[in-house]
Design goal:
By secondary structure, this protein is an alpha/beta fold. The chain is built from 14 helices and 17 strands. The longest helix is centred in the last third of the chain and has 20 residues.
């Protein structure tokens, strides 16, 4: 019987991922639901449900950031499976997740944010992608909705949204750590940057890395590419022709995968450097396929929360269809997944601390939330960013393509 329920749950979750595609729809799901309820996004407030508190999941399930968005959602889903209820005062209340697909589109972010607000969510988790988060910040802040951004790293997210909190770190911090490790530890003198045109996170990271690397005596060449680009062979040839030793590409996984894989066609000896968004098995498999060496920064180091590590592996094993379709076919835990788990835990702890389902009470309680989660110790600064002083530097290379942590690089 348990096996049947598990299979049905996996099928339901897959349906949930594929059904949130338009700017006028969200989907509700709880840990033990046997059906998904679609909520049309008219600007009407949903009637309250007794003994239920709603948390919005504002994430890209389509578009350029879909791979990372789905992995982040997996962490949120597992957290909801692990902690399906929260105690508000003396009452045990069920947590219902409301999914809104922002489609990786800043232009659609506000509309999806409004759908979630009108659906009556008490708090929101997301999004992967700084641009969509920044665009939605105005809507969430105006409604007083507290939001915990799991993995997005753009500075503007918490600056623009006065109800926004962050699990990861910011772009200037990780860019400084990456530039320092690249110059001082790897001894690399010349780097070719590939960045996505029109993506503020990609452009910002490129700028911060360039400034930090050049300050250390390095040389940088930069190329911007249009969204939707699929062929990077000419860019890689330019990097080698200009005697660059490494490529820094703060880009979505859909581009990172292509960039790395296409390097094999050129018999390239370039080292690849990525930001925390690259902490995924998508990059690991691309690196193995190409025989490439990759270095990344990350806020996630396996082992901080052993219960999380063992629990999510067991959950993946029980939901193989979900794992295969939304976690690139294996049980590797991405940084986005771990951050999604911690974001959910932060929200649930704030609700319990506030003893309230009211948005303003939860927002106030978030300020003093602290715990050890999947991404190590978590507490928020006065600017609502997680207090972090270093980045984990990880590498993947031959012969064993798994992430190996090689340094804790201070900002």
């Amino acid at each position: 019987m348990k096996r049947i329920v598990s299979v049905l749950l996996a099928a339901l979750m897959l349906l949930t991922f594929s059904s949130c595609r338009s700017a006028d729809k969200t989907v509700e799901i709880t840990a033990d639901d046997t059906s998904a309820q679609a909520v049309n996004g008219e600007t009407t407030t949903q009637p309250p449900q007794e003994n239920v508190i709603k948390i919005g999941v504002f994430q890209p399930q389509s578009g350029d950031d879909r791979l990372s968005g789905k992995q982040e959602i997996l962490g949120i889903m597992y957290a909801n499976q692990s902690t399906p209820t929260v105690k508000i005062g003396e009452k045990e209340v069920k947590v219902k997740l409301i999914y809104g697909d922002n489609e990786s589109s800043p232009e659609k972010a506000k509309a999806i944010a409004k759908v979630l607000v009108d659906a009556g969510v008490s708090a929101v988790i997301g999004s992967y992608g700084s641009d969509v988060s920044t665009e939605a910040a105005e809507v969430f802040s105006a409604a007083g909705v507290p939001v915990v951004a799991a993995s997005c790293t753009g500075e503007a997210v918490t600056e623009k949204g006065d109800t926004y909190y962050r699990i990861g770190y910011t772009d200037p911090s990780q860019a400084k750590a990456l530039a320092s490790y690249t110059a001082k530890r790897l001894g690399i003198k010349k780097v070719y940057i590939l960045a996505t045109l029109g993506n503020s996170a990609s452009q910002g990271l490129s700028l911060y890395f360039r400034e930090a690397f050049e300050a250390l005596g390095g040389t940088v060449l930069t190329e911007n590419f249009l969204p939707g680009t699929t062929d990077f062979s000419d860019s890689l040839k330019k990097a080698e022709k200009n005697e660059c030793e490494a490529v820094f590409a703060p880009v979505s996984l859909v581009y990172a995968e292509k960039i790395i894989e296409q390097s094999a066609q050129l018999d390239s000896v370039l080292t690849f450097i990525g930001d925390s968004g690259w902490d995924s098995n998508v990059v690991l498999k691309a690196a193995e396929k190409a025989g490439a060496t990759v270095y990344i920064s990350s806020y996630y180091q396996p082992g901080a929360d052993e219960k999380f590590e063992s629990g999510i592996k067991t959950w993946f094993a029980s939901n193989t269809a979900l794992m295969n379709n939304n976690n690139n076919g294996d049980d590797t835990v991405s940084a986005a997944c771990a951050a999604g788990f911690d974001a959910y835990q932060a929200v649930v702890r704030a609700i319990a601390k506030a003893k309230s389902a009211e948005r303003q009470d939860i927002a106030k309680a978030l300020k003093s939330v602290s715990f050890t989660g999947a991404c190590s110790e978590l507490k928020f600064s006065g600017s609502r960013n997680a207090v972090r002083s270093f980045a984990y530097i990880k590498t993947a290379n031959e012969p064993d393509y798994g992430w190996t942590t090689v340094a804790e690089q201070k900002f």
